[in-house]
Amino acid sequence: MRLAWFFLVLAIATEIAGLTALKAAGAYVGHAVMYGSIALSYVFLARAVKTIPVGVAYAIWEGSGVALITLVSVLVFDHVLTGREMLGLSMAVAGILLVNAGKVQDEEGER
Amino acid sequence: MSMSSFSFAFAVLAGIFDVAANLASTKSNGFSHRGWGAISIVLVLAAFALLAEAVKGMELAIAYAVLGATGIFGTAISGRLLFGQRLKPVGWIGLCLVFGAVLVLHTA
């Protein structure tokens, strides 16, 4: 199970790297890098959803993707957070925690 | 069909491709079925290409919200129907919050 979470984190990290590259580099290079890292991200996601329910994994992938991209724009691109963005970030964190709490554990153990 | 509903259809289609990519990813059993793994990657790249097509005629924020809603809820519902992966009510509240976050952050 722990390994699956490690792969989910890798999937999110590669997604963020791709989107950051898209923002930092120009049109063509940025797009090429983004498609490459999205593909890589799905290789990791496939490992993660071996044990994590796919609905949970995808919601976490999508939610932390958008939240972390906002943080990257603060840290790398000197963006200042608006109240709305702070609200969005808190919603993402709360939502991910609830989705995770809502998983129905497989009584038989890992499949 | 008007230009904007055409773009909207592209955004919905992008979401559907995204859901299909997630299902193929699950079917690949951690890439041990390479065919399903490859299909999953092709589908997700197609989803992004469709999103790029959608934003030519509509705002990125709206397109992303449509993609997010289709992707997040579509994946959870199909995961339950196809793989029997159930979610407690609190998990569905969480899904709504994540979708809300996507909406808030993309329109911020």
Automatic annotation (TrEMBL), chain A:
<keyword id="KW-0812">Transmembrane</keyword>
<dbReference type="GO" id="GO:0005886">
    <property type="term" value="C:plasma membrane"/>
</dbReference>
<protein>
    <recommendedName>
        <fullName>Spermidine export protein MdtJ</fullName>
    </recommendedName>
</protein>
<dbReference type="GO" id="GO:0031460">
    <property type="term" value="P:glycine betaine transport"/>
</dbReference>
<dbReference type="Pfam" id="PF00893">
    <property type="entry name" value="Multi_Drug_Res"/>
</dbReference>
<feature type="transmembrane region" description="Helical">
    <location>
        <begin position="86"/>
        <end position="102"/>
    </location>
</feature>
<dbReference type="InterPro" id="IPR037185">
    <property type="entry name" value="EmrE-like"/>
</dbReference>
<comment type="similarity">
    <text>Belongs to the drug/metabolite transporter (DMT) superfamily. Small multidrug resistance (SMR) (TC 2.A.7.1) family.</text>
</comment>
<keyword id="KW-1003">Cell membrane</keyword>
<dbReference type="InterPro" id="IPR045324">
    <property type="entry name" value="Small_multidrug_res"/>
</dbReference>
<dbReference type="GO" id="GO:1903711">
    <property type="term" value="P:spermidine transmembrane transport"/>
</dbReference>
<keyword id="KW-0472">Membrane</keyword>
<keyword id="KW-1133">Transmembrane helix</keyword>
<dbReference type="GO" id="GO:0015199">
    <property type="term" value="F:amino-acid betaine transmembrane transporter activity"/>
</dbReference>
<feature type="transmembrane region" description="Helical">
    <location>
        <begin position="58"/>
        <end position="80"/>
    </location>
</feature>
<feature type="transmembrane region" description="Helical">
    <location>
        <begin position="28"/>
        <end position="46"/>
    </location>
</feature>
<dbReference type="GO" id="GO:0015297">
    <property type="term" value="F:antiporter activity"/>
</dbReference>
<dbReference type="InterPro" id="IPR000390">
    <property type="entry name" value="Small_drug/metabolite_transptr"/>
</dbReference>
<comment type="subunit">
    <text>Forms a complex with MdtI.</text>
</comment>
<dbReference type="GO" id="GO:0015220">
    <property type="term" value="F:choline transmembrane transporter activity"/>
</dbReference>
<keyword id="KW-0997">Cell inner membrane</keyword>
TrEMBL record, chain B:
<protein>
    <recommendedName>
        <fullName>Spermidine export protein MdtI</fullName>
    </recommendedName>
</protein>
<dbReference type="InterPro" id="IPR000390">
    <property type="entry name" value="Small_drug/metabolite_transptr"/>
</dbReference>
<feature type="transmembrane region" description="Helical">
    <location>
        <begin position="36"/>
        <end position="55"/>
    </location>
</feature>
<dbReference type="GO" id="GO:1903711">
    <property type="term" value="P:spermidine transmembrane transport"/>
</dbReference>
<comment type="subunit">
    <text>Forms a complex with MdtJ.</text>
</comment>
<keyword id="KW-0997">Cell inner membrane</keyword>
<keyword id="KW-0472">Membrane</keyword>
<keyword id="KW-1003">Cell membrane</keyword>
<comment type="similarity">
    <text>Belongs to the drug/metabolite transporter (DMT) superfamily. Small multidrug resistance (SMR) (TC 2.A.7.1) family.</text>
</comment>
<feature type="transmembrane region" description="Helical">
    <location>
        <begin position="62"/>
        <end position="83"/>
    </location>
</feature>
<keyword id="KW-0812">Transmembrane</keyword>
<dbReference type="GO" id="GO:0031460">
    <property type="term" value="P:glycine betaine transport"/>
</dbReference>
<dbReference type="GO" id="GO:0015297">
    <property type="term" value="F:antiporter activity"/>
</dbReference>
<keyword id="KW-1133">Transmembrane helix</keyword>
<dbReference type="InterPro" id="IPR045324">
    <property type="entry name" value="Small_multidrug_res"/>
</dbReference>
<dbReference type="GO" id="GO:0015199">
    <property type="term" value="F:amino-acid betaine transmembrane transporter activity"/>
</dbReference>
<dbReference type="InterPro" id="IPR037185">
    <property type="entry name" value="EmrE-like"/>
</dbReference>
<dbReference type="Pfam" id="PF00893">
    <property type="entry name" value="Multi_Drug_Res"/>
</dbReference>
<dbReference type="GO" id="GO:0015220">
    <property type="term" value="F:choline transmembrane transporter activity"/>
</dbReference>
<dbReference type="GO" id="GO:0005886">
    <property type="term" value="C:plasma membrane"/>
</dbReference>
<feature type="transmembrane region" description="Helical">
    <location>
        <begin position="89"/>
        <end position="107"/>
    </location>
</feature>
